[in-house]
Target: DUF6534 domain-containing protein
Amino acid sequence: MTSQPQTPSLPSLDDTFGAYLLGTYGSTALFGVTCLQAFMYYRSYPYDRPWIKVLVAILLILEVLHVALNITGSYWFLVTNYFKPEHLLKVTWSATASLVDLLFTALIVHGFYAYRIYTMSGGVWWPALTVIILAFGRAGNFFALCIITFKIEYFSKLAPSLKYGPPTLAFSVATDIFIATTLTWHLHKGRSGIKETNSVVKKLMIIAINNCVLTCVVDIMVLIFITIRPDSLIYLGIFILEGNLYTNSLLATLNARKLFSKELSRRNQDPSTLKMTAPKSSEGIGHLAQFGGPRAGGVHSAVVFAPVRQEGSVSTMTELQLATQSEAASSDNQYKKAVVMDESRRVDL
Model:
């Protein structure tokens, strides 16, 4: 009988490249969700502001690169260099480049949320500036980590770059918590006291909190594994999911506008209860819940929520008022107040 040739033993790859491969699988799955949300966005909001559509396109391109780079890295380690242990010790450029891609994704999303906070606060600059400072603090530490990693040839020398990990994660958690807290506060402050509109506001608050929770959980898990298992790649397998989560949170926020608009429309079935009324205050829900962007012909639409007053009572039903600036030009001054909104105070939810 011929004996089978003995193969050299290799160390277990479960907590190193196995973890990196699982992270790549997860990132690819989330990329599918990103593509679906981007398709829904472009189909549902063809007249949205051009800069928002460009922003979504940029994030989609970054997501394509992110997935492609991680797949390339996984293939290089587990296929191209199969049975070549000496190559498994080296840091590949594609894995590091995917981190740079993630850096820009997070910075763009944080910038978008800073803009939202600025508009929702009525032009108050310091909350948005705080977000920008925290976001650039995160980006600065992360950029230093990427530069050092690019210069490192072997995984055994990653320790100097990992020291930038905890500050980066701390800035990330602080930024996300501040964004969620600020958005929730302004939404809470803008409640109208009407049951139907308050229900929508609560859902918007839940979305803001959930977006923060997902990324914060990822950052905390990465910090834990960097601390207790710095010799593995479990932290990398988890961290590469963060870029997908940031992109999907932004797209979910944009796509939620139409869902809430339809929900409010369903609650206004009686045409006799719909009329144009001026909001009592520009700080109320009418200010906070503006949907959409430019419409056909360069005309803007404003969405205002207000109670429907009837003789002797105030109806609990909420009205969804849609009117254009061109229509407002031919109406009286009170009608203009209800429809024409200061462009600097518009909010894209």
